[in-house]
Specification:
Layout lengths: L4 H9 L4 E6 L8 H11 L4 E2 L1 H4 L6 H10 L1 E8 L1 H9 L3 H10 L4 E5 L4 H7 L1 H4 L4 E2 L5 H11 L5 H9 L5
Parallel strand pairs: 1-2, 1-3, 3-4, 4-5
Length: 167
């Protein structure tokens, strides 16, 4: 989290409609990306997420551009599907990623992949401080993201992390 202090400072200072823009690969939209979305909503984080933010009949690229501009920070859910998309095509996800990389407000969340694997595809993104579900559960990562956007304080995040997980 210390590595992400500059991101937190910049994010908290921004006054945007959404706290977070969730960038993900299309195949992850109904599974991993939706899980992240639900966890963040549970922490009172406002999320621009294509599955709920895009309305039928809207121009996807225009809507995504508006979502990027209206969000305080970006999260990139890096999964095997995202790595495949970034390796093989110029998909909308790669365009979103390019836009997010131009800003200093970007945090990768590794899910089922390592930073080393990401480094082989996009060293620029891999060099950013981020999180990995191999090191901590997504629930804890959601708390830390809420802390980054100023929804919870560091002390509140510590308290939330101390609550035992229930299954």
């Amino acid at each position: 989290m210390r590595d992400l202090s500059p991101v937190r400072s910049a994010t908290v200072a921004r006054n945007q409609v959404h706290d977070v823009f969730l960038c993900h690969a299309w195949p992850d939209r109904q599974a991993a990306a939706n899980d992240v979305y639900e966890l963040l909503l549970g922490k009172d984080v406002s999320v621009w997420f294509s599955e709920v933010s895009l309305r039928p009949g809207t121009d996807m690229r225009v809507a995504i551009d508006r979502g990027l501009v209206s969000s305080r920070m970006g999260i990139v859910l890096v999964t095997p599907a995202m790595l495949d998309k970034l390796r093989t095509d110029r998909s909308i996800a790669s365009n979103e990623l390019s836009a997010l990389l131009r800003r200093s407000l970007l945090v990768p969340v590794m899910h089922g992949v390592t930073f080393e694997e990401l480094d082989q595809v996009t060293p620029t993104l891999a060099s950013r401080g981020g999180f990995s579900t191999a090191e901590e559960p997504m629930e804890d990562i959601a708390v830390k993201i809420a802390e980054l956007v100023g929804i919870v304080t560091e002390e509140e995040a510590d308290e939330l992390n101390m609550v035992p997980a229930t299954s």
